[in-house]
Amino acid sequence: MNLMTDVLAAGVATLPAQADVLAGAVLRPPLLAWDGSRYRGAQLRGLDADSLAGCPGVVRLVAERDFVGIVAQSAAFALGARARLRVEWDDSRAALRADTTSPGNDVAAPTGESADGPLARTYRWPAVARPPACGTWAVAWHHGDGVTVWAACESVELLRQELAALLALPTARIEVRGNGLPASPLAFDAAGDAALLSRAVGQPVRIEAHPQGDSDEAQLLTLEVDAQRGPDGRIARFELRSGSCAAARPSLARLLAQGAAAPAAASAAPASPYAFAEQQFSRGTMPLGPWRTVPAEALAADVFATESFMDEAARAAAADPVDFRLAHLGDDRGAALVRQVRQQASQGAGTRQAGARRGTGFGYASALDAATQPPRRTWSAWSIDVAVDSSGHVDIERVVVGHDAEDLRPMSSQAAWIEGQVQDATARLLQAPSFDDWGVAADAPQASGAAQVPAVEVVPPGNALAPYGRLAWSEAATLPAAAALANAVFDATGVRLRQPPFNSPDVQARLADAPGRRGRRRAVSWWGGLAALTAGVLATVAPWRTEIAPVSRPDPGLYSAAAIERGRLVAAAGDCAVCHTAPGGATNAGGLALETPFGTIHSTNITPDEKTGIGNWSYAAFERAMRHGVHRDGHRLYPAFPYTAFAKTSDGDLQALYAYLMAQPAVASQPPRSRLAFPYNVRGLLAGWNLLFHDATPYQADPMRSAEWNRGAYLVQGLGHCGACHTPRNALGAERRGPQAFLAGGDAEGWEAPALNALSKSPVPWTQADLFEYLRTGVSARHGVAAGPMAPVVQELQQLPDSDIRAIASYLGSLGPAPAGATATVDLQSLESRAAREVRPGSNAARLFEGACAACHQAPGGPTLFGSKVSLALNTNLHSDRPDNLVQVILRGVPDPAHPNLGYMPGFADSLDDRQVQQLVHYLRARFAGDKPGWQDVGATIARIRREQAHAQQP
Amino acid sequence: MSEMTEPTPIALDVNGVRHEVTAEPQTPLLYVLRNDLALNGPKYGCGLGECGACTVLIDGVAARSCVVPVRGAAGRQVTTLEGLTGPDGQPGPVQQAFIDAQAAQCGYCLNGMIMATHALLRRNPHPTDAQIRQELQYNLCRCGTHVEIMDAIRLAAQRSA
Predict the structure, then answer these.
(1) Between A and B, how many CB-CB pairs are < 8 A?
(2) pTM to 2 decimal places
(3) What residues 592-651 of chain A have any CB closer than 8 A to a CB of chain B?
(4) Strands (DSSP E) found in A448-598
(5) How far apart are CA A406 and CA A166, in angstroms?
(6) Considering CB atoms only, which of B48, B68, B122 is closest to A852?
C-alpha cells in the first residue's frame, strides 16, 4: 500500500508492482445483444452473494445493472469465485434469441419463379472475423486523480473517450498507456472491465482476456431483401432489413453497467446506390461477440446482400446482370464506371484451365467513406472470372476493378500495391483455413496445381465526371468483392452462395456436385481410387526395412526462419521434448526411462548430432520414422514412440519439424539401450504389429465439421498424440480402435489418464470453456489442476497460440457427454454440502485430513494461500473408478506444477505410512464423492505406487 | 532428481531488494530466506505446509515458504516479516498491534500469525471475527495465546483506516 502511494506521487508512470495489482474476472450474460443504442441481451435477475461465503481470496463482488465482476487477490481466486457464484439471468425480454441456423448456400436456384411480382431473399454475413489468435491483458487503476489504463488497444483515443463515458470523467483525466503487447481487439473490453472493477475497489485491477467463445457459432448478420417487381422485371420497391447496427459498439462494461449508450458514430450509409422508385432500409438488433466489430462490416454486409440480390433479380428476369444494374442506376458517375469495367472485362481473357466450369460475376457499390473528413463518396465496380474444377475448388482467374472517389488522392507506387490489395480481398473470401495452418507464413507454396494468383486489372476512372484518370484506392474499393465472386460462382455452377466465406468444405462439396451451367461434370475417376487402394495394401504388406543411407547434417541455413518457427510449434504440439529429455539433461538429447508393461524403454537422442542423434538422417528417413516407426538403419522402433499418431501429421508439418530439429544445437549423448524381455526384444515382430494395428494414413479433414474442429482433431489425433495415454490399450500395447474406445481412458507412467469421451467420470461435465481454461492455465475452476504426466504437457502447450488451444477444446468438447442444457450450471454448494455431511469428526482419518490437508484443501472456508484451490468435491480423480491418481498425488505431491501460479504440494510418502494413506484415501472418497462406491484394494495400489516410485528413483 | 546439473543463479525480489542466489531450484524458499539471505522472521515448523510458522507473502498472498521451491518465487515479489517494518525501522501497524496486545508466549508461531493478518487486512481491512478465524485456523499455536492473538488482530483492524 505504501508502494502505491509512492507510485501515485511519481505521476503514475509505470505499471504498479504485481503484488499491488488485484485480479478481476467478469461473468457475462448468456445472451449479449444490442440494437445500436441500447443493451438488448439477457438481464440480471438475481445474484446470490452468499454463494461466495468462505471463498478464498475474494476482495469484492461488483454488480452494476447487468455487469457482474469479481475482484480477488489473484486470477486463480477470481476464476474460482466466478465458478462458484450463483447468478440468475432473465432472457425473456431479450430482443434476440441466439439464432445460428444458416440459410445455407442453396444448391439450385429456385425453379419456376416468375419474372415479375414479389421476390424475397435472405443473406448472411459473418459479423465476426476469425478470432484473434492470442489473448491479452489490461490493468486499470482508478485513483483519486482519474484513471490510468495499461492496455494494447487499437485506438488509444477511442478507448479514452469510451472510458470517459463509462466512468463519467472528463477525457483529460483518462490516461492510456501501452502494455508492451501487440494491439488486440480484445483490449477494448478488457480495459473497460478493469476500469469498472478498479473503480469499485480503488486499487489497480488486471483483467486477462482470452479469445474465448465458440467460434463455431460465428455470429451471422441476417440480411433480408424484399422486392416488388414491375411487369418488365424492373424493381419498383426495394426493402433491405439488416440485422446489423452499423455502429461501433461501446465496451461491454458500459453496455451492461449503463444499459443505454449513444452509438459512437452515426449510422452509416443510405440504403442502396440504385434509384428504385421506392426503397426502405432498416437496421436491427445484433448479437455481440467477445470482440468488437466495426461499422465497415455492416456496410460490407449491405453491399453483399444488395449486389447478390441484383444478380438474382436479373437472372429471374432473364436480363444481363450488368444491363439490369445500369437500368436501375440514376447516378451518372457510377454508371460510367460500371460501363468502363464491363468494357475492360469483355476484352481479352484470363488463362484457361481445361475441364473446369467458368463464369463471370459483377458487383458494384457506392458508399460514403467515413474514414475521411468530410466523408467522401466512393464508387467501385468489380468483375471476376472464376473457374470451378470438378472437386469444387474455386479459382479466381481474373479480376477487373474500377474505383472512383470524390476528391481522389492518387497514390505513389500504386499499381502493384493495389493489385496486392485486390488479391488479398479475394483470397480472404476463398482461402480455406487449413488444419495444419500454424499462423506462421510458410515458405512452401501451397500444393495445388491451379493458378493461385489471379490476374488483376485496375481500371482508372477516366471520364468527364472523374477527370483524374489515375489510380487510387480506399478501403471502400473492396466492398463489391464478395458479391462479385458469389455471382461468378453462380454463373459457373448454378449454385447460389448466400453466405461468405466460400471456402468451407461443405460449399466445396456442393460445388463439386453441381452440374454447372455450361460445362459437364467429369466422370468420377474411380479406377484411380482403386489403384491407389491397391498400392496402399501392397505398401503395408511389404514394408521397407532397409537402411536409408546416412547423409551429412543438412545446413540449417537451408531452411527459412518461417519454416523453423513452424517446426518449433509442431515440436511443441508433439511434446517431443517431454519424452526425449532426461531429467536435468539437455533438451531432446534423450535418455528418459519410460516404464512400459513390456520393459523399460529409453528415449533416443533427436538432436542433430551425426553420431548419437539424427544428424545423419535424410528427410526420407525422418519421415519414415515418423509415419511408419522405422529407424534410419532399418530397425523397428517400439510404439512407445507414438508414430501411430504422428503418422496423421501433414507433409508440410513434418518438413517443418525436420527443419526445426536440424537447426537445433547438436548434443553428443548416447542414451542407454532399451532392454525388453523376450519376445518383445525381437523388433522384427513389430512388422506384424504394424500390420495389425497401424494406420499410416495422414489426417483427412471432415467436411461436415468446422475448420476449428478439424484443426483440433488434427492436433489431438496426430501431433498431440493424446490417445497414447488417454486411449485404453490392448494386451499387445496397441491403442484400441473404434469411436467408443478412442480417448476412453488409459494409463500414463503409473497415473490414470482419465476418459475424455462420454465415459468421463467428472462430477461436472467438461465444457469447451473448461477445457480451454485447463489446457491454457493448467487449472479449471470447475475440475481441478493438471498434475502428474499431464503437467509437462500443459507446459509445452504454452507455446501454442490460444487459437490452437481453442481448437483442441472444441474437438474434445464434441466428444464428451452432451451438456444437459445451456443453462445447467453446477451447484457447487450442494456438491460440497453433500461432502460436508460425510465428515466424521474425530475419526483418525478426519484428523489426518485436518492436520495434513485442510490448510490448503478446506472448502468452503480455509485461508487464502498462494496457489489454486479447487474444491475436492469437483476433482475428477476422487470420482474415478480407480484411486491411482489420488494415491500418486498424496505420495508424490505436485513438485512441478503445470503453471507456476498453481502452487506446490509436498509429497507425503515419507511422513504418512501405508495405513494412514489408506485411511485418508477412503475418507476423501467418502467425503467428496459420496455417491460413488468405496474403492477396493487401496492397500495394494499404495504398495504398487510406492514400489514404482522407489524404482524410478534408482539411478 | 536433477543432481547432475550445475545450479544456476535465481533472481529473487525480497522486501523490495533484488538478490541472486545460487541454489538447487527445488530448495524450499524458506531455506534460502533463512540461510542465504539471513531473513530469520519466517520459522521452520513442520516442513509440510501444515502449521504456518514459515508464512511469507508472495505477490501479496500468504504462502507457506517451506513447500514453495525457490524457483517458484522467481520473478515474484516476496515479503517477509522484516519487510513489514517501516523505513525508520519501527514495527509495522500489524506488528505494533501484536506488541500492544501482548500476543506472544513463546512467539514461534507469531511470524505466521502476523503475515497472515497482514495479507487478510490488505484484502479486507475490517474483517469479522468469523473471517479472522477462517483465515488463521490453520496457523497453529501450541502455547494457547489464541485469545490475545484475536485481540491483536481486532486492534490492527481498528487502527487501519
Answers:
(1) 89
(2) 0.79
(3) none
(4) 455-459, 593-596
(5) 37
(6) B48
